[in-house]
């Protein structure tokens, strides 16, 4: 087995969280997410069964007794993040089947965000996230420089090192806003970015023959 990862980098219109809502949809039905103001930012999306009561009407006991079945569904993040409304048939989005013979449902938790930010979402399908380096600041004059006045690019000694360690290290998924409100401002007046280098480490290290690396830049004020 090799370590695998999915990286979603979204530019969203948002800065303040208005509410959090959880939508539960039985397998085969339509799930609908919407924001009156702002856009959708999915916080978690799972498929399976953790309760014998939810989506149980008319189902035999054998189909609802397994309540230890849950699987993350990254495709919902990709499909819905950044939209005002998102509607899709909740079926066939999480393969392979996490618990064959059990009638399952989709549980999606999301918030609406209302100003311009950048949202970073990292998901590791097999294994755990290992942060190699992470900095919020600026170390060169070219990255995320388009359309910026020169005075916002001069300070290349701006560091907030290991910025994601406390959020992502050792987890299978994490999401974080690249903004001063999260990291504080290490260099006032400088246009900053979040620079991350990470690897996927297998739960069973003997299987992790190769490590997959990624470097991503997020541009933020």
UniProtKB/TrEMBL annotation:
Q: Which GO terms describe its molecular function?
A: carbohydrate binding
In its keyword annotation, does this UniProt entry include Signal?
A: yes
Question: Which PROSITE patterns does the record cross-reference, listed alphabetically?
Answer: SUEL_LECTIN (PS50228)
Give the top-rank taxon of the lineage listed in the UniProt record for this protein: Eukaryota
Signal sequence, start to end:
1-22
Presence of the UniProt keyword Repeat in the record: yes
Outline the extent of the SUEL-type lectin domain: 25-113, 129-201
The UniProt keywords, alphabetically, are: Lectin, Repeat, Signal
Q: Name one Pfam family in it.
A: SUEL_Lectin
Q: Quote the protein name from its UniProt record.
A: SUEL-type lectin domain-containing protein
Instruction: Give the organism, scientific name.
Output: Cyprinus carpio
């Amino acid at each position: 087995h090799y370590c695998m990862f999915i990286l979603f980098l979204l530019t969203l219109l948002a800065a303040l969280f208005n509410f959090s809502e959880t939508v539960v949809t039985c397998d085969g039905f339509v799930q609908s997410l919407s924001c009156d103001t702002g856009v959708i930012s999915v916080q978690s999306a799972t498929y399976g069964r953790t309760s014998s009561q939810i989506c149980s009407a008319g189902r035999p006991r054998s189909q609802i007794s397994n309540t230890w079945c849950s699987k993350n569904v990254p495709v919902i993040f990709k499909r819905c993040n950044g939209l005002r409304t998102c509607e899709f048939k909740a079926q066939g989005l999480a393969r392979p089947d996490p618990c064959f013979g059990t009638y399952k449902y989709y549980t999606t938790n999301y918030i609406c965000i209302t100003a311009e930010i950048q949202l970073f979402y990292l998901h590791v399908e097999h294994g755990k996230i290992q942060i190699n380096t992470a900095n919020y600041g600026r170390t060169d004059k070219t990255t995320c420089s388009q359309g910026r006045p020169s005075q916002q690019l001069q300070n290349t000694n701006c560091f907030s090192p290991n910025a994601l360690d406390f959020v992502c290290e050792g987890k299978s998924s994490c999401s974080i806003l690249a903004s001063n409100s999260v990291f504080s401002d290490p260099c006032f007046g400088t246009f900053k970015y979040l620079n991350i280098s990470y690897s996927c480490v297998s739960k069973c290290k003997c299987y992790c023959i190769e490590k997959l690396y990624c470097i991503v830049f997020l541009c933020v004020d």
